[in-house]
Amino acid sequence: MAPSAPRPVPTLAGPALTLAEADPGVTEALLFRLALDASPVGVAIVDRELRYVYVNEALARINGIAAADHVGRPVSEVVPDVDQAAVRSMGRVLAGGPAVRDMVVTGATAAEAEGVWLESFEPLAAEGRIVALLAVVQDVTVVRRTQEALERERLGASVLAQISRDVLEHVRPEEIAGVVLPDTLAAIGATWGTLHVLDEASQRLQLLGASGVPEAAVADLGSLPLAARYALSEVARTAETLVVRSRRQLARFAPDAPIKRLVGDGEAALVPLRVPHLAVGVLALGFEAGHLSDERLVAARMLANIASSSIARARAHLAERSAREVLEAVIEQMPLGVAVTDERGGVVSTNSALRRIWGGERRSRSVEEYGLWHGFHPDGRPYADEEWPLARSIRGGEVVVAEEIAIERFDGTRGTIALSSAPVRAADGSAVAAVAVVADVTERRQAEAAREAFLGVLAHELRTPLTSIAGGARLLARQSLDAAVREELRADVESEAERMARVVENLLVLSRVERGLGMAVHDPVLVQRIVGAIVAAEQRIWPGVVFQVDVEPSLPVVRGDDELLGQVLRNLLSNAAKYGGGHVTIGARRDGDEVVLVVADDGPGIDPADRERVFDLFYRSPRIHGRAPGAGIGLFVVRRLVEAMGGEVELASAGGGAAFTIRLAPFEMEPTEETPGR
Fold it and tell me: Which of 94, 275, 346, 643 has the fewest CB atoms lying closer than 10 Å?
């Protein structure tokens, strides 16, 4: 036998083993552990000193000793009366020899005076060396004894053995039933057979398969209540075999019991499919009168054991696969990015959120290839391969929590992530894998940076007019000023007060938005009256700018608020005066029932790259930073106020200036008891 590659050490919980908590990778290990614990086949992990490290309940039952009492004890001490050739084979596997498959072992345990087992030994490796051994033990004592009896009676032992082998190739209960039933009838001379399993949720016996049964009877057998007065239901409830030698034995069951019609004048064996102390189904076999011998009954019980073990294995496999699929689906749908590495740091699994955060995917095969991922320290230094949190977790066992890293994505854009990572440990404490969780904090960091910049600009925006007002007030107090100078100072103070009032107005709107307070208004507004008043006020503030007004007569009344619409127009006209070329037009026209307002300037316009962001809070185009002061909240306030009035605002910009278009909805009287709504 050629040496087989050692298997990696699985991560398990239990006596003498370490488990990292709250970890997607470890959750898979937990599922693996649960599958081992529920396995009908004995499983153990033995260290290099041939001492038990882990034993599942099936092997504990075989050895007649509690699972916890195995841990730390040598194999030869726990089962001294078992063939020691098995122990020697273990030693050879641990020393680097080939794996052992299906070794026949005989002897005695605390649970069995004389037993026969099939044992397999596989090496387990960590970091390139064999650290433990996986032992799988299948109790074939009953099978062997039954086979011997069948051989004596020439009842087709070869067919029964083939059934045992065939069912191992299937993992669905329906497929197992399709193998067991036809071959069973041929092997022991039965005329018909059915196989039911118990559905715990509905408490009903569900038919998995039938052979030699008339089609009309199959429908009656399909789903049987566990609590019903049926023979099959009683066997499932009591977990006791029912041998039917004559129809009279079935008289105590319900008249419509499906099994009665099948038995007829013949005989039947109804054998429970059992796991310890519990029936999980029923195998029913029918025979001609006088043909149900003790040997056939033993064979039926053996086949029921084969079926129950195979179905339990199939269910465990399906449950594990289902749990894994659910886990994978949960990880895939998580809003946070997830990556899992192997023991070398190679990335073996990622979810869609991680791929979205990074703008693509790279599968580095080891820590030495982490240069595929471009990250930067706060001082701008690139992350070296070994500096990445995943590398520190897999190599040093470090648990990293929310380390912020500036990144360059695979599509060339930049962002910021918060990366957490932790190792997944083997039984010996070594890190055999690592998992990382990644949050994209780019927008949060950008918002914080914008807010800090805004606070600086805001301080300037408020300090400048306050300084001018305070200085002007001191100068106005001088009696020696002539009338012309005094009037100029007064106008400056008034202008700066207007400027500060506008900043405060916008801040009030911003405050309501951030606190989630609504601003919806439904008052009637005459646009032409508001436009005229606002343009006149702005002309005084911007005497060097030409404001051209083009308002259609007889505009319809629109829904809104005089003050809010005035604030919108002040912000737009002020922007046009600051950033335009000295000529601003404001037009208002009817469009159906709506009123369309347009504020346009003759400035350089707005770059296409900036158009989507001009209405964002705190955003100011890099092109205008040095041209005029501002806090980056005016256009944000414009959009919010227009939306509060039930309208829309959009930007149109070509090379010859910027134009903002506002659509305002017609005013409609709100329904009241005296004025029914439409």
Answer: 643
User: CA-CA distance, 209 to 200, in Å (whole number)?
Assistant: 18
Could you read off the pLDDT of 133-184 as tens digits, one per residue?
999 999 888 777 766 655 555 544 555 566 666 656 655 666 766 667 777 7
Q: Which residues of 599-616 are buried (b: 16+ CB within 10 A; e: fewer)?
A: bbbbbbbbeeebbeebbb
Nearest alpha carbon to residue 569 among 531, 521, 514: 531
The DSSP element (H or E) to which 104 belongs, if any, is strand 100-107
Place of tokens 């650290």: 131
In this structure, the strands spanning 546-551 and 583-591 are parallel
In sequence order, which residues have a C-beta less than 8 Å from that of residue 110 and are 6 or more positions away? 63, 64, 65
Instruction: With 0.85 as the threshold, say if the pTM is over it.
Output: no
- CA distances to 58, 411, 499, 547 from 532, rounded to whole Å, are 91, 51, 20, 11
Total residues belonging to the chain = 678
Question: Hunting for tokens 């408490």 — which residue is that?
Answer: 203
Longest dimension (CA), the chain: 137
- Phi and psi at 344, nearest 5°, equal -95, -5
Cα 17 to its chain centre, rounded Å, is 28
Beta bridge partners of 439: 418
Separation in Å, CA 295 to CA 67, 211, 278: 35, 21, 24
Find residue 104's DSSP bridge partners.
118
Could you tell me which residues come within 8 angstroms of residue 225 by beta carbon, excluding any fewer than 6 positions away? Answer: 203, 204, 205, 233
- Is there a contact between 236 and 278 (Cβ–Cβ < 8 Å)? no
CB 132 within 8 A of CB 45: yes
Question: What digits encode the pLDDT tens for the residues 510-542?
Answer: 555 555 455 557 788 888 888 888 888 888 888
Cβ atoms of 429 and 27 closer than 8 Å: no
Report the 10 Å Cβ neighbour count for 434.
Answer: 30
Compute the distance between CA of residue 669 and CA of residue 522 in angstroms, rounded to an integer: 9
**Do residues 51 and 74 lie in contact, with contact meaning Cβ atoms separated by under 8 Å?**
yes
Paired residues of 548 in beta bridges = 585
Q: What token pair was written down for 518?
A: 């609504």
Per-residue pLDDT reduced to its tens digit, 438-453 = 888 887 877 676 666 5
DSSP 82: B
The string of DSSP letters for 518-532 reads -----EEE-HHHHHH
Which helix (H) or strand (E) is 587 found in, with range? strand 583-591
For residue 34, what is the enclosing H or E element?
Answer: helix 24-38
